[in-house]
Design brief:
α3 crosses α5. The chain has 264 residues and is of the alpha/beta class. It contains 12 helices and 7 strands. The protein is globular. The longest helix has 18 residues.
Length: 264
């Protein structure tokens, strides 16, 4: 069942850049597909309309509120969502930018197969789902993906030092990596101060992402939904913006076990 109008109004109010009726229709259809897919394979623990609207759709679309990221999206640069899981943040972004060339990578073949079906159902012809481990696809010997993207983004995959080693090899020189992070962002940034320059990157900014949903408290949501809206509004969320200013050395990324056991 597609999203009710009140949830679409919530999304539109939370992310003012997303106000095109066709985009909202695609997001509504995406919700329906998420629920349907989740009955076959587990892609998310969140399936209620309010949870998906807040924690998957709105949270993903906050990328489009960041000027440096929006510039890349508006320009239609080659983009990559690394560790996309069931399709977030990539599919909501693609719903808002249906002509965006977007590669979506995850190591779980079943999730990528489902993602391909959902992208086709949404007529998102520019989305390219890829099954494989990020560290293998970005290896120096794999020229197709390495340093091929002007914009890469990732959400909830690993702590920042590991995430940077995994993702920065995908970013072209002059491109941007946007890491979506939560309340431990400051600590993770400090952990990454050595790793990021080693990988050819430079932190441009650590941008706090605020989502004002006060308007929604007067809408037709029940008390439980309003509590979730308040919780989402007050949560700490940041996007770490990292510019790629030189090529990544061929020795990176290392294997996952090495990255996680001995972060740079």
């Amino acid at each position: 069942m597609p999203l009710e109008q009140k949830y679409l109004d919530l999304i539109r109010g939370a992310v003012p850049t997303v106000d095109d009726p066709a985009t909202l229709d695609r997001l509504s259809h995406l919700y329906d597909l998420v629920v349907e897919t989740n009955q076959k394979i587990n892609i998310t623990s969140l399936v209620s309309p309010i949870d998906v609207s807040l924690k998957h759709l709105i949270d993903s679309l906050t990328l489009a509120t960041i000027p440096e990221v929006k510039k890349c999206l508006d320009a239609g640069y080659e983009c990559c969502d690394i560790g996309c899981g069931g399709g977030f943040p990539g599919l909501p972004v693609a719903c808002a930018y249906p002509t965006l060339p977007l590669t979506m990578i995850d190591s779980t073949a079943k999730k990528i197969a489902a993602l391909k079906e959902n992208a086709e159902a949404l007529s998102l012809e520019c989305v390219s789902p890829v099954s494989g481990r990020g560290e293998d696809l970005a290896a120096a010997k794999r020229g197709q993906y390495r340093e091929a993207y002007r914009l890469c983004f990732s959400r909830a995959v690993a702590r920042l030092p590991v995430l940077c080693e995994l993702c920065l090899p995908f970013v072209s020189v002059g491109g941007l990596f946007a890491a979506m992070k939560g309340m431990q962002t400051g600590e993770e940034v400090r952990e990454s101060l050595r790793a990021i320059p080693m990988l050819g990157g430079k932190i441009v900014d650590v941008r706090e992402v605020k989502v004002d949903l006060d308007f929604a408290l007067s809408m037709d949501f029940n008390d439980e939904e309003k509590d979730k809206i308040r919780e989402f509004s007050s949560a700490s969320r940041y996007t770490v913006l990292i510019e790629k200013n030189k090529k990544t050395l061929d020795v990176y990324p290392r294997k996952w076990a090495q990255m996680t056991k001995k972060p740079l």
